[in-house]
């Protein structure tokens, strides 16, 4: 019973009380920032978690059209691949290659999902680029997403659906918006 | 002496021809191969120490009574270094260095002597010249050997006189048999470095050597440099003793001159003309050698022990940001500073067998450490300071801790996990006398005594430190923590954790340290896990891991970067509270199961 309660649901009272005293580690260690309309694509919001050590963790915000929709049944129609440059800059074994320099619009991975059939039976493929959002150096990508892209829909606070870890200067996050600003802007959009 | 005479000359002065005018008598004796100084004895006795502000070393010109050619500058071979014993300034500099450092328990010291590089260069030149005049150069007493002898003699007598009429004579007076020598290897060996320079060294060497290979291209070696009046500089990479030896050591006189780009004007113009080029190379110098530095350093002393950390508000090491200390105190300071003071060390380094985070207590049998005391001025503290009295002082030390907890939790007052270890209860009780205070950096902190406990302190040597660092990789560690889960748990569901071990987890370098540690995936063995149900969302976890496992990440999964984790095994977001290190399983301990007995730290 308690087990199915959402983290902040009515039934999870004991966990809610505890969480007020002791926030989850994502909140303890990170500042939650958002990149709205990444690379100018309307609605393609990303989250950027800024660790106290200034490393950034980038993933898809709940308002992003890919994850705002229900995940495709079975996940079979979902294809996710990282760009070759992103994979090449990964640390492999003890050998560390030069890390990839990122611009805000750099694509780190591409996610393709089959849309439902139109009335005439034709199917479309929706393709989304998941982007760096900031200037910086790529540290790591979440390779677990390749086998399990449904992690992208993991909305739990300590979600494992992040896409990339980026090393960036503090200035690199200036254009991002705060969590409060994100809530305000996206709530306003929904009311329109 | 006639050219072509194959018989060896009877004296070095004969062999040198007119060149001898450039050298002092003592150097002539060196070249002659005589090791005594009877013919060139001191005319200036050792001076009593002065307290002049002027510490510049002004070497006397040659002071030998029979040295008639001392005018016109300093000796072209030693630049006056052979007369160091007559220099009051050199004695003053030595005395001042000895008094400043105030070393105790000095029996012997070793001398590291550095001479001006152009003096070494000239030694090669004069030896090569002598060989060409059929004088056996291997008879020559090396300049460094001769200067070493003079410095050793002078320094030894200075040392003996340094603390005469001094209140601290008892502690600092060298014992009988003190010597400064080339040897002096030992646990408390003192190394004295004396460095001499010369104002003309750089110009002189630059004049003869080029440090780059560009010259080769400019002037092709095939005959290009042989033209009269064209001076081809030798190509040499840097100028060090080793370089000089390599480049000059085995050349004959004509080869040397060719290497240096100095052609002998004529081979048949008589001996006088042949000497001129050598006279230029070995001419007297206007400035004498200078004393560049006197440094003293003693080998480190090592003290080992084990420590317990009974607080979640003290880090193991001091934390600096841009040179500013951000922590009021740390385990290393609580332990190291009293030792540094007792041995009058210049500084100390704290090495521990692994480390725990600021908010993690170190309980049980404690964590091994070694304090390396660098450049200790004292090797045996006075009788009233013993290692056990230092231990007692450290254990009673008032520690400034952060008022607020570190990252893991906010408040740990009154928390003692009940079942941890009986042996630490007394120590915990001692933490009751907390008084509020504000540290120098303005951060809130309070002062509590007894938060760091040390035991088994003893002296060790460097090899033990190496051993400890290697051994820490092989150890197992037992941790205790409280885990929160988002999904409700039952005593039965916790069985999953027990059954999962032993297992190997793949642990990526945790995000929280990824900015300063290299990225890697490390397999870590989890030997056993014991979970004790507390209530629907909390349980107590005891886990035995391979050394180097990050336990916080093992619990919450670090965004899936440690896998499997408690989070993935229970399929629920999980978080960790109140982490303690219960026991380091030392080399002698094999793998142990919980409840096997003998694991006192795990029993109620
Ligand atoms: Zn002399
Ligand atoms: Zn000389």
TrEMBL record, chain A:
Q: Which residues form a coiled coil?
A: none
Classification via Gene3D superfamilies: 2.40.50.100
Which Gene Ontology cellular-component terms appear in the entry?
nucleus
InterPro entries hit by this protein? Abitram (IPR039169), GCV_H/Fam206 (IPR033753), Single_hybrid_motif (IPR011053)
Which superkingdom is the protein from?
Eukaryota
Q: Which family does it belong to?
A: Belongs to the ABITRAM family.
Recorded protein name is Protein Abitram
Q: Which organism is it from?
A: Vitrella brassicaformis (strain CCMP3155)
Q: What is the lineage of its organism?
A: Eukaryota, Sar, Alveolata, Colpodellida, Vitrellaceae
TrEMBL record, chain B:
Domain Pus10-like C-terminal, by residue range, is 302-402, 449-583
In which residue ranges is the amino acid composition biased (Basic and acidic residues)? 207-220
Per the record, the GO terms for biological process are: tRNA pseudouridine synthesis
Q: In terms of domain of life, where is this protein from?
A: Eukaryota
Ranges of Acidic residues composition bias in the record:
409-423
Q: What class of enzyme is it?
A: isomerase
Keywords from the UniProt entry = Isomerase, tRNA processing
- Family as reported in the entry's similarity comment: Belongs to the pseudouridine synthase Pus10 family.
Listed name of the protein = tRNA pseudouridine(55) synthase
